[in-house]
Amino acid sequence: MKYFSWLWNNSRGIRWNTMVRIIAGIIQVVLSLLMVWLSKRFIDETIRTGTADDVLRMVELLVLTVVGGVVLRQVGYWLKTSANVRQSNALRLRIFTLLNQICLPIILQTNTIQFSINGAIAR
């Protein structure tokens, strides 16, 4: 349960992106299996007993499954890249915020001391 809560907290901002990528991946697998099944059916049944319209319809379905797979693959790449950029930016923001919280008071304190010394010397 500890790991799930860690994953949940660190996936803030990309949860929907991740879910859509998972769904797109599942649909890609389904389209690949559909392509194999349609190819088998095209060779075994449509070529042997189908009419010209059946052959044309089967070719259209095969082309649509290939195009659908390519489109889903590109959508997956885009979602992956956008999630990567978002998480990288969030990590940089957290690191710089932490550095500012730690280092800024030290810098301000050092500058205050320097201003006090410079003010005392100028008098």
Q: Main traits of this protein?
A:
123 residues; mainly alpha; 0% strand
- How does the overall form come out from the CA principal axes? rod-shaped
Q: What is the percentage of strand-forming residues?
A: under 5%
Count of helix runs: 3
**C-alpha Rg, in Å?**
29 Å
Structural class: mainly alpha
Distance between the termini: 64 Å
Query: How is the main sheet built?
Result: none
Structural domain tally: 1
Helix content: over 70%
Count of distinct strands: 0
Q: Which blocks of ≥5 consecutive residues have pLDDT under 50? A: none
Helices and strands, in N-to-C order? HHH
Let me know the average pLDDT. 84
Quick structural overview:
This protein has 123 residues and is mainly alpha-helical. The protein is built from 3 helices and no strands.
What would you say this structure looks like, in words?
The protein is mostly helical and 123 residues long. It has one domain (2-122). Helix content is 93%, strand content 0%. It is built from 3 helices and no strands. Helix 2 (15-49) packs antiparallel against helix 3 (52-122). The longest helix is centred in the last third of the chain and has 71 residues, at 52-122. It starts with a helix and ends with a helix. The model has no long low-confidence stretch (mean pLDDT 84).
